Known about the structure:
116 residues, alpha+beta, 3 helices, 34% helix
Amino acid sequence: xxxxxxxxxxxxxxxxxxxxxxxxxxxxxxxxxxxxxxxxxxxxxxxxxxxxxxxxxxxxxxxxxxxxxxxxxxxxxxxxxxxxxxxxxxxxxxxxxxxxxxxxxxxxxxxxxxxx
Length: 116
């Protein structure tokens, strides 16, 4: 079965292809870029959290312990495997964050600040 995809555009104008999965999908321990998102009533995607990780399965398990994906209103995970180096993943993430500024990234940053 073909997995649906979407192009997310960064602040630089560069387009990044992400594959769309339901929030309940179980992922492998692969490096990836991801956008945790929700689908609006009119069919548009709203990014809740944008990030990158060297292990998507572990990251999603951890984030669900800190802030549940349902608290973010998330319905889907958009992601792509990124076997390149971490710097490439981070550059893509920063480009998308500059364009979209999802509220979940602020929640996580604030939660980490409070926990220190």
